[in-house]
Amino acid sequence: MEKKITTQQEYQNYVNKKSPNSPILKNCINSFCVGGLICTIGQFIFEYCKYKGFNDDISGTVVSISLIFLSALLTALNIFNKIGKFAGAGSLIPITGFANSIVSPAMEYKSEGYVMGVGAKMFTVAGPVLVFGISAAVLVGIVYLIFNPQTITLV
Amino acid sequence: MKKVGNQTIMFDNSISILETASIVGPKESNGPLAKYFDKCLEDEFWGEDSWEKAESKIIKETVNLSITKSNLSADAIDYCFAGDLLNQCISSSFGLRDLPIPFFGIFGACSTFVEALSLGSVFIDGGAATNIICAASSHFCSAEKQFRFPLELGNQRPPTSQWTVTGSGSAVISTNGNGPFITSITTGQIIDMGIKDANNMGAAMAPAFVNTLVSHFKDTGRAPNYYDGIFSGDLGCIGKEISVEMALAEGYDIKNNYNDCGVLIFDKEKQDTHSGGSGCACLRNSIFRLFI
Fold this sequence. Notes:
The structure holds 2 protein chains of 2 kinds.
Chain A: H1 8-18, H2 24-51, H3 56-76, H4 80-87, H5 89-92, H6 95-108, H7 114-121, H8 127-147
Chain B: E1 2-4, E2 8-24, H1 26-29, E3 39-40, H2 51-69, E4 79-84, H3 90-95, E5 103-105, H4 112-125, E6 131-138, H5 140-147, E7 163-164, E8 167-174, E9 181-186, H6 201-220, E10 230-232, H7 236-249, E11 258-260, H8 261-265, H9 268-271, E12 277-278
Parallel strand pairs in B: 2-3, 4-5, 4-6, 7-12, 10-11
Antiparallel strand pairs in B: 1-2, 2-8, 2-9, 6-8
Helix pairs in contact in B: 6-7
């Protein structure tokens, strides 16, 4: 840096140049591998359920429940955060990340009691996902109805 | 005492740092400065059932330790200036509630400890006190809980992020004692250069540090080589680099005798702290010659 920085924009540009970037390629490969592995485990459970004679719907539900349980368990055992540090979006995007984002605040705020701690703070991380996920679903539903009015039936 | 220049106060009396004490958490205990701490904890809870209670206990024990080390009774201490990172400064106010010393709770985030020393020095030089205890604490877990994400959340930290130091430091300053002495203080302005990235605190704070430093040199008429060492609190590796370059652009070369406590307290490569340490307790672990 040769001359004095005077504006916020100059400083922002300077800081961007100074700050190391996240290792994107490494992060992508890690997250591809771990995310793929999680999905493979899910598929394995799915095929096993089908083999045992469940239909597709029930097998899918069993997959979700199993992965959520595993993720919650690993979170409680202080293992999931290590996987997440390595895999990033690879473990965050599948349903495992959602389970982790609810279990971890529940653990964190347990020291503040079960009602105002666990109960109130459990959704601090997942809350926005729920709010906007449900809002988006409602919007999509309305748009669908506008273009397919024949689907409205009065029971 | 008298005001010099725009933001510096020079003291008439000698204000000595009589004794200091520090207690740190497990990660700091494995860092390069471990042998300088009075006590290294093996876990973040220290027998308590929450991180906040543990932090309170850490600051309480640290303050008691520095009082014991200075061979003073608690009655001989006139005031206590202390603070931490948490809401309402709960760690220090709960931790120090049994102390029979008038208490000023202060909040300056990373600058809390120096803020305490500055205010304490003014009190002593003004004749309102003989002995004052200054303390600050921070705790990685309680800070993450309040300001960031739950510890068990599986997210990634960017390379610019820093690691809040677990621990507490305290100092007894006094009109008696053989130094080191606090001879002047330069209080910084709030400088906001518009950094919005919460994971790049070093870059957000560096301009304020450089501004304060340059003001100090201008007010006192000193040059950087007047000092054996110049230390900043917790700018981290990136903030340190930025500070050196910005100071140079202002015409002050601090490359040779400047360091940052956030860089010193952890081993960046081995301990995975990314850009270094941060927090109230960070600064305490080095001697801050800037003010001496």
